[in-house]
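User: Please predict the structure of the protein below. I'd like the answer in C-alpha cell form so I can feed it into my own downstream comparison script.

Assistant: Understood. Taking the following sequence of 239 residues as input:
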Amino acid sequence: MSLTLPLVSNSLIPHTPSLTIFSPSDTAFTQSGQPPLSILRLHFSPLSFPLNSLESLSLGAKIPSLFPNYSLTITSTGDDVSLNGVKIKDSPVYDDGSLVSRVLNSKGYSVMASFLDLQLMVGFTDKTALTIFAPVDEVIKAFLWDLREYSSMFLKHAVPCKIMWGDLVNFDDGVVLETYLEGFGITVSTSGDNLMLNDQASVNFPDMYHNDWLVIHGLQSILKEPESEYSFLDDGDEF
C-alpha cells in the first residue's frame, strides 16, 4: 500500500482534514494483484475512525468511502471489527500526525507542523485532547533564533482540551485558557467581529484541522502575555 499511495495520491486522496485508510497487507496485494483505482477508493474514508470508534459502531452501520455512492458496512462488532467481511487489525499502522503535517504545510504553518510532529512522538502519543493555536510561518520564524525557546514556543500555544471554533466564539470575554506552559494563559476576548487571544492575536483560520482528539486554529501572530489592564507612571500615579 505504501508503494501505491504516492502513485494515486493526487487523483485519489482529497484535501480533507480527516482520512482513514484501510490498508490491505502485502500478502493480500500479492494474491489479488494490483487493484484498479475504483477498488482502491473503497479502502479510503473521508472521515477519521480510530479503532475505538469502529468498535462502538453497531452491526450494519455504514461508513462512507471515496468510491462514489458506495459505503462500507460493519459486518462484525466488538473486539473483532470487520468491514464487508474483512477483519480490521487491532492497532493502526499509520499515525494521523503525518496527515496533520500535510495540512499545516499546505496552508503555510510548517513551523508549527514540525513542532507538533515532535510533540506527537514524545509527549502526546496517548491522543490527549488538544487544541493548538498555530502562528503562520512568516511571524514565527523571526522567533526561532534561540533553540532554548522551541519547547516553550509550542507549549504556550497548546491547550489541554479540544475547543472547536463554535465553542470558542461563545466564551465570555475574559475567559482564560490554561496552556501546557506553566504560568501562561490565553485570555479570550472580542474586538468587533474578531476573536482576540491575549488582546493581540486574532484567529484567522478557525478549525484548520481537526479530528476526534485534536483541533488546530491558525493565527496571524505569536501569542504573548496579555497587556495589563492599567499602565502606571513612574511616580506611581495611575495613568
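That's the full C-alpha cell string. The first helix runs from residue 5 to 12.
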